[in-house]
Amino acid sequence: MNGHERELAEAQREHWQHTYGSHPGMYGQAPSAPARHAAIVFRASGGREVLELGAGHGRDTLFFAREGFTVQATDFSATGLEQLRQAARDQDVAERVATVVHDVREPLPLADASVDGVFAHLLLCMALSSEEIHGVVGEIRRVLRPGGSLVYTVRHTGDAHYGAGTAHGDDIYEHGGFAVHFFPRHLVDTLADGWTLDEVHAFEEGELPRRLWRVTQTVPR
Questions:
Q1: CB of 34 closer than 8 Å to CB of 214
Q2: pLDDT tens string 163-200
């Protein structure tokens, strides 16, 4: 990371720590629609062990655990993960959930070919450069078993906030304190090089509404 990228990353970490601290359980308890889709994908391939990146306070982690998956949940917010652990205890699924504070700019703390599925709802479109995003997906490919799938969602360049707020370069714009890397379609395609690209599904979320893609791609057997 250069100096500006490092400053932006640290500012975003502090912003999310404050946000989770001020608004516990801010996304509610119901799982996201992409998580419901991911559970179907993972189960169809016989998957049992799931890694969630950017788990936050854990509404989707807890859903996967209730569905019978073993989940390793990571986030760079210790505050969010503490809320997740407490909720896992409250829902009697703590034995199926492990958490670790982790910045995806660093290598994943997992062995090669050690998980069946990876889920990342809006994680890849945080304040990450294109180079860093490619690095994250490379690490995901490393830890997935053959036949394992990655399901991720990102806001794209058709979103109403694209081009609004403070520009940080590389299609990253900060609006309301949140920095977002808006994905052009060619970035999705290059991230799928060497994978089977199963689906790019366009959907909307929230009141703006935010415009997103849900991407499903699989490691060939």
A1: yes
A2: 999 999 999 999 888 899 999 999 999 999 999 999 99
